[in-house]
Design brief:
five-stranded antiparallel beta sheet
């Protein structure tokens, strides 16, 4: 008997609350495994997700706090063997993180200030990132690729 194919689309709705991050991480771990994502890619995507959620809670404004955040993970191909995309949809203040400039890396510890490097981290750990505004929602798409041999 063959195993059933992985689900094409996995979704979760969470509140814009740091207490929900752990639930989102657990969902991503389970969903990534269901899509046969390699652990390294799941971990990279989880790091991106947590950074995006933290930025949304901190900078999304009142609208973000009052509406749920939609998370969706799906295979890029029917088998899920080559990649997956995570879509984060929210009603926070519009912000195209795919086009925003990253904070420069400080040259020394004395020049360093807290925060501001998360966007650089998301861009470095994801393979693709895109943004669009759709029906009053921000929609951020983060893609991870892997080789079929992983």
């Amino acid at each position: 008997m063959t195993a059933p194919p992985p689900p094409d689309n996995l979704a979760l709705e969470i509140g814009a609350d740091p207490l929900e991050f752990r639930r989102a991480s657990a969902w991503l771990q389970q969903s990534g495994a269901a899509l046969a994502m390699p652990e390294e890619q799941i971990d990279r995507l989880e790091l991106c997700l947590n950074e995006v959620l933290a930025n949304l809670v901190e900078h999304g404004g009142e609208a973000a706090a009052q509406h749920p955040i939609q998370l969706r993970l799906q295979a890029l191909q029917p088998t899920g063997a080559c990649g997956a995309e995570l879509v984060v949809s929210d009603r926070g203040a519009p912000f195209d993180s795919s086009q925003a400039s990253s904070k420069p890396i400080p040259g020394s510890l004395e020049e360093a200030t807290p925060g501001g490097l998360g966007l650089r981290l998301v861009k470095a750990f994801s393979d693709e990132m895109s943004y669009r505004m759709l029906d009053g929602h921000n929609e951020l798409r983060i893609v991870m690729h892997w080789s079929p041999d992983s």
